[in-house]
Amino acid sequence: MSNLENKRIVLIVSGGIAAYKALELVRRLRDGGASVRVVMTEAAQRFVGQLSFQALSGEPVHTDLLDPAAEAAMGHIEIARWADGVVVAPATADFLARLRAGAANDLASTICLATSAPILLAPAMNQQMWQNMATKDNVATLIKRGLRSVGPDSGAQACGEFGPGRMAEPVAIAAALADLFVPQTLSGIRVLVTAGPTHEAIDPVRYLTNRSTGKMGFALAQAALEAGAEVILIHGPVSLSAPSGAAAIAVVSADEMFHAVMENIKNIDIFISCAAVADYRIESPATQKRKKNDTSLSLTLTPTRDILKSVTAQSMPPFAVGFAAETENLLEHARSKLERKSLDMIAANQVGVKGLGFESSDNELHVLWKGGQQHLAKAPKEVIARQLVGLIARVHGQKES
Predict the structure, then answer these.
(1) Mean pLDDT for the stretch of residues 17-30
(2) Is 159 a residue of the active site?
């Protein structure tokens, strides 16, 4: 969070129940050394009072576009010019739609139009509203225009429904905002990231797979983009949208992922192998659906090709980063894999623990490389990804120098 030191942040709070979380965000930003000015929409003021934000930020709260006391000096322009960064948290469906349309009918939307500072969006809304094509199109358009987005998370919602649409946690938003000011440590660097599971067909209906959601790999691709890299993302079957700016290649099986990696690895500087590629595939998948009966079913499995070893076995391999998902003897197995596969770095994570790794929004990594190691404490995967990419950039730079 040191990147927030002495930064001037405008926090725009729009009208959603997640507005209460923005209070914690102010505290996080202040703890990071930032100065914060809060702008509230009319609807936001119905959820949280101005005094709470004023007490936490130490600054008056701004609400009116035509504030007589401020407009003598064109107050809305002054706030827009003052900002080093703008964050909208929560960013409701309505605010996103007005922002895409270029509306300027209140102070919050006017500041977004008038500022030259980077803008970060933290969407928050009902899960059905988030998944509506109108909202998806609005967000995609805003990202294409250069705005950044963090979240939303998935989970229980105030309306009683469950699904994507919860505003990202304040710690994740603060970290994403801090990354707006990250030096471009991977500028000019070409990065290939693999993510997600693979599906190994048993028959046209069934397949073997694992619990990977792809969230860690997608977060790494996003973090590499933020650090200035040119990114190729090769991913298995997931329900995530690829980060804007990454060249995404979708595959299904381990064999397809192998071919996609080997076809794109030329001229790659850094290879991050985060995908949970199946170790085995069905030797002879059935061409028709297997019918259930009362007898046991035996499947013959054959090893899949080792993508990591194939990459590091090249005459001029890229800087190779592997992952080790382990249920026991974490560091011992990670060190063995680091040496066995001739890796430059390995990120080991404990799986089978509730709240970490697969099917979780959080992760914790023990990162090892030749001559060093570092523990990345439990945090949202987006935060862990940015920390790991920063570490990769540093160690890669040392190797190249």
Answers:
(1) 92
(2) yes
- Top CATH class of 2-181 equals alpha beta
Can you name the residues that pair with 250 across neighbouring β-strands?
235
Which residue reads 């995530």 in tokens?
A: 240
Interatomic CA distance for residues 109 and 41, integer angstroms: 9
Where do the domains of the chain lie? 2-181, 190-286+293-400
Say how far apart CA 288 and CA 125 lie, in whole Å.
43
Residue 244, CA distances (Å) to 22, 87, 138, 215, 250 in order = 26, 19, 13, 15, 15
Dihedral pair phi/psi, residue 285, rounded to 5°: -60, 145
Per-residue pLDDT of 46-83, as tens digits, reads 999 889 999 999 998 998 877 654 544 455 678 888 88
The pTM (predicted TM-score) of the whole model is: 0.66
276-322 pLDDT per residue, tens: 999 999 999 999 998 888 888 899 999 999 999 999 999 999 999 99
Candidate list 55, 101, 134, 159, residue with the active-site label: 159
Per-residue b or e along 240-270, where b marks 16 or more CB atoms closer than 10 Å to that residue's CB: eebbbbbebbebebbbbbbebbeebbeebbb
* Mean pLDDT (whole number) for 22-50: 92
| Residue 24, token pair as written in the block | 């914690």
Between CA 324 and CA 124, with CA 240 as vertex, the angle to 5 degrees is 115
Q: Which residue is associated with the tokens 């089978």?
A: 352
DSSP tally for the chain: helices H, then strands E: 14, 19
Q: Which fold has domain 190-286+293-400?
A: Rossmann fold (3.40.50)
